[in-house]
Amino acid sequence: QVQLVESGGGLVQTGGSLRVSCAASGSIRNIIGMGWYRQAPGNQRELVAFVSSGGTDYADSVKGRFTISRDNAKNTVDLQMNSLKPEDTAVYYCNLRIIGGSYWGQGTQVTVSS
Protein backbone atom coordinates (compact mmCIF):
# COMPACT_ATOMS: atom_id res chain seq x y z
CA GLN A 1 0.00 0.00 0.00
CA VAL A 2 1.45 3.31 -1.10
CA GLN A 3 0.40 6.56 0.54
CA LEU A 4 1.18 10.11 -0.46
CA VAL A 5 0.79 12.71 2.26
CA GLU A 6 0.81 16.35 1.27
CA SER A 7 1.37 19.39 3.44
CA GLY A 8 1.63 23.10 2.94
CA GLY A 9 -0.52 25.23 0.73
CA GLY A 10 -2.94 27.82 2.03
CA LEU A 11 -3.89 31.40 1.28
CA VAL A 12 -1.45 34.03 0.07
CA GLN A 13 -1.61 37.41 -1.65
CA THR A 14 -0.49 38.01 -5.20
CA GLY A 15 3.29 38.05 -5.37
CA GLY A 16 3.68 35.92 -2.29
CA SER A 17 5.26 32.51 -1.81
CA LEU A 18 4.13 29.11 -0.64
CA ARG A 19 5.68 25.70 -0.37
CA VAL A 20 3.91 22.37 -0.71
CA SER A 21 5.51 19.11 0.31
CA CYS A 22 4.73 15.47 -0.30
CA ALA A 23 6.02 12.32 1.36
CA ALA A 24 5.47 8.86 -0.08
CA SER A 25 5.42 5.78 2.10
CA GLY A 26 4.74 2.10 1.69
CA SER A 27 6.02 -0.52 -0.68
CA ILE A 28 7.48 1.67 -3.42
CA ARG A 29 9.33 0.11 -6.30
CA ASN A 30 10.24 0.95 -9.87
CA ILE A 31 9.84 4.67 -9.45
CA ILE A 32 9.87 6.71 -12.63
CA GLY A 33 9.51 10.06 -10.89
CA MET A 34 7.51 12.38 -8.66
CA GLY A 35 5.83 15.66 -9.25
CA TRP A 36 2.91 18.01 -8.87
CA TYR A 37 -0.29 18.57 -10.80
CA ARG A 38 -3.05 21.07 -10.17
CA GLN A 39 -6.73 21.40 -10.90
CA ALA A 40 -8.71 24.60 -10.80
CA PRO A 41 -12.54 24.58 -10.72
CA GLY A 42 -13.94 23.76 -14.13
CA ASN A 43 -10.53 22.85 -15.52
CA GLN A 44 -8.74 19.61 -16.20
CA ARG A 45 -5.89 18.48 -14.01
CA GLU A 46 -2.64 19.78 -15.46
CA LEU A 47 1.04 19.13 -14.94
CA VAL A 48 2.86 21.76 -12.88
CA ALA A 49 6.28 20.18 -12.44
CA PHE A 50 7.76 16.71 -12.55
CA VAL A 51 11.19 15.33 -11.79
CA SER A 52 12.55 12.01 -12.98
CA SER A 53 15.89 10.47 -13.88
CA GLY A 54 15.38 12.02 -17.28
CA GLY A 55 15.23 15.53 -15.95
CA THR A 56 12.77 18.12 -14.76
CA ASP A 57 9.71 19.44 -16.58
CA TYR A 58 7.73 22.55 -15.78
CA ALA A 59 4.53 23.94 -17.18
CA ASP A 60 5.30 27.05 -19.22
CA SER A 61 3.06 29.08 -16.94
CA VAL A 62 5.24 28.41 -13.88
CA LYS A 63 8.75 28.45 -15.35
CA GLY A 64 10.98 30.87 -13.50
CA ARG A 65 8.57 31.08 -10.54
CA PHE A 66 8.24 27.51 -9.24
CA THR A 67 11.02 25.14 -8.24
CA ILE A 68 10.58 21.42 -7.68
CA SER A 69 12.96 19.42 -5.55
CA ARG A 70 13.03 15.73 -4.79
CA ASP A 71 14.78 13.62 -2.18
CA ASN A 72 15.11 10.16 -3.68
CA ALA A 73 16.24 8.56 -0.43
CA LYS A 74 13.24 9.87 1.50
CA ASN A 75 10.72 9.65 -1.36
CA THR A 76 9.71 13.25 -0.89
CA VAL A 77 9.04 16.02 -3.35
CA ASP A 78 8.61 19.72 -2.63
CA LEU A 79 7.33 22.56 -4.74
CA GLN A 80 8.48 26.06 -3.91
CA MET A 81 6.11 28.59 -5.45
CA ASN A 82 7.19 32.21 -5.75
CA SER A 83 5.62 35.26 -7.36
CA LEU A 84 2.23 33.63 -7.09
CA LYS A 85 -0.63 34.85 -9.25
CA PRO A 86 -4.41 34.47 -8.87
CA GLU A 87 -4.37 32.05 -11.79
CA ASP A 88 -2.22 29.71 -9.71
CA THR A 89 -5.22 29.11 -7.47
CA ALA A 90 -6.05 25.40 -7.56
CA VAL A 91 -5.92 22.14 -5.69
CA TYR A 92 -2.38 20.83 -5.98
CA TYR A 93 -1.90 17.07 -6.17
CA CYS A 94 1.26 15.11 -5.56
CA ASN A 95 1.96 12.36 -8.08
CA LEU A 96 4.20 9.33 -7.83
CA ARG A 97 4.73 7.55 -11.10
CA ILE A 98 5.98 3.96 -11.22
CA ILE A 99 6.37 1.43 -14.00
CA GLY A 100 2.82 0.33 -14.73
CA GLY A 101 0.97 2.85 -12.62
CA SER A 102 0.61 6.06 -10.71
CA TYR A 103 -0.38 7.21 -7.22
CA TRP A 104 -2.00 10.45 -6.13
CA GLY A 105 -2.16 12.45 -2.96
CA GLN A 106 -5.40 13.80 -1.55
CA GLY A 107 -4.68 17.32 -2.76
CA THR A 108 -3.94 20.57 -0.98
CA GLN A 109 -5.60 23.90 -1.69
CA VAL A 110 -3.55 26.86 -2.83
CA THR A 111 -5.43 30.15 -3.04
CA VAL A 112 -3.87 33.37 -4.31
CA SER A 113 -5.86 36.51 -3.60
CA SER A 114 -5.65 39.55 -5.86
Strands, helices and their partners?
Blueprint: E1 3-8, E2 10-13, E3 18-25, E4 31-39, E5 46-52, E6 55-58, E7 66-71, E8 76-81, E9 90-98, E10 101-104, E11 108-113
Parallel strand pairs: 2-11
Antiparallel strand pairs: 1-3, 3-8, 4-5, 4-9, 5-6, 7-8, 9-10, 9-11
What does this structure look like?
There is one protein chain. The chain is mostly beta strands. It is 0% helix and 61% strand. The strands form 2 sheets. Strands 2, 4, 5, 6, 9, 10 and 11 form a 7-stranded mixed β-sheet that branches. Strands 1-3-8-7 form a 4-stranded antiparallel β-sheet, with no helix packed on it. A hairpin with a 6-residue loop joins strand 4 and strand 5. The protein starts with a strand and ends with a strand. 28% of the residues are buried.
Short description:
With 114 residues, the protein is mainly beta.
Question: What keywords describe this structure?
Answer:
114 residues, mainly beta, seven-stranded mixed sheet, four-stranded antiparallel sheet, 0% helix, globular
Distance between the termini: 40 Å
What is the radius of gyration computed over CA atoms, rounded to a whole number of angstroms?
13 Å
Structural class: mainly beta
Low-confidence stretches: none
| Helix percentage range | under 10%
Can you count the beta strands? 11
| Binned strand content | over 45%
